[in-house]
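Our collaborator T.R. sent over the components below with a one-line note: 'Predict the complex.' Nothing else. No constraints on interfaces, no templates requested, no preferences about which chain binds where. So this is a plain run: every listed entity goes in together, and whatever single assembly comes back becomes the starting point for the next discussion.
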Amino acid sequence: MSQVYSILVVGGGIGGLSAAIELTLKGHSVTVLERTSSLQSIGGGILISPQACKIIDTWGCFDRFLKLDVIRDKLQIWRYADGSLIGSNDFGWQKNVYGYPTLNITREDYQRLLYDRALELGVTVKFGCKVDTIDQAVPSITLADGELWKADLIIGADGIRSKVRTTVLGEVVDPRISDTAYICKISGDAMRADPLTAAIMAQPDPHGWLAPGRHVVASPAQWGKSYYIILILDKEHDRHPPIPEDARDWQTRGDIKELRKIFDDHEPKLRKILDMVDEENCKLWRVGMLPDLKTWISESGKVVLVGDAAHALNPYLALGAAMATEDVAVLSECLSRIISPSQIPIAMKAYETIRKPRAEKLKAASEFSGLEKHYPDGEKQRKRDELMMKSAGSQIAVPKKGEKNMHPSAWVHGYDARGHANTELDRLFGDDGTATFRNTVPDSFGEGLIA
Ligand SMILES: Cc1cc2nc3c(=O)[nH]c(=O)nc-3n(C[C@H](O)[C@H](O)[C@H](O)COP(=O)(O)OP(=O)(O)OC[C@H]3O[C@@H](n4cnc5c(N)ncnc54)[C@H](O)[C@@H]3O)c2cc1C
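Returned assembly:
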């Protein structure tokens, strides 16, 4: 058993609670400081891809996730104007090939399951604790009310507008806001009662619509109790309404009347769905992406970033939460290879070295996916649709168990975070796989790592 450390996690979102579970299971003493007064999560379905499920399965609560999962086999994509099928992204085969499926549960349920598990394991989650300043050298945290907290390691899981990031970088780095996401919740009964939308509720697969400068992803949730629809609008779209300066993610009401106008060129099904949305059930989120950061760790090596605080990306490949999950698994493997608190900086350097290239590659892939989804009608859009239709129809890319997996997304969804971390740690730390040097980081750390 490696040394046990006291760890403060800033932020009780998916990343922070995941870090708390993972590190507590390794024997560390973890406290989560969350600024909100209670567990708060709004939002529609979150896709949990297989590589994240593989990690969650080591936390002793995966069966609870499976109970809430409503995904079946595929994501169907329709053309906005006439509702014709453009593509069908199959993931029914993933469980067979990767050992885990893609799950679809609501953000609310996801966070609640993590929170419950963290409490069961003895994690202290303190609400109403807004982190104000951080002394990275100690390291310590001062809350907005003046209370002081010290630890061996501080993990910044405080999201896209991270305060911890400013400490780590010594400067403010703001995300680049690209699009606006509107999230609407509709009652499942209302959807079932209308002949135009009843068929959608009869099958739980997620689905979406692509349009110039816009796209939509939706699915029934909570076993048909509700239906969530996320509508994305490009910042440059000519009908983008002004967003209030003080708009806060998921807290600000979106203008559903405006939204109906923006999507009035869509097929009748989508228009009917928007007609069913109550004003208070339409919230907005500004989609932002961080540039690649120069580092994820403070000068002392004792303050580190995970999740959106380190690599916020747009949601177009549905990977943000999965990446936070990968982060915490790798970080914990790195901590397991050191033998004293003075080596925490070395472990954190290893974490950054292993994680950063992959996170940046996924961020770039996600950005491209957004551009591709929003092509204006024309040549590029036709080619995109043809390609999507081809792979949906032929199923050529779908791998079989035991075969070499050539599926284009194998590097994303077939990734083994712990396996990769341990291979790299064996290489970085040499013979017995444990850090034996103190307070120095060899130059070779960044070389030759795969993404
Ligand atoms: C529309 C949309 C759809 C998405 N769909 C998917 C999907 O299908 N699959 C997927 O994997 N990902 C998806 N994502 C991305 C995913 O939601 C995020 O990447 C993930 O939630 C990031 O988790 P986090 O814990 O790093 O940050 P957050 O969830 O932002 O949590 C940060 C926490 O820190 C707290 N905090 C902030 N500042 C302080 C402070 N100073 N002191 C104390 N606490 C603080 C906040 O209150 C919050 O609780 C989607 C995102 C969006 C916008």
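Summary for T.R.: Confidence is low (pLDDT under 50) at residues 446-451.
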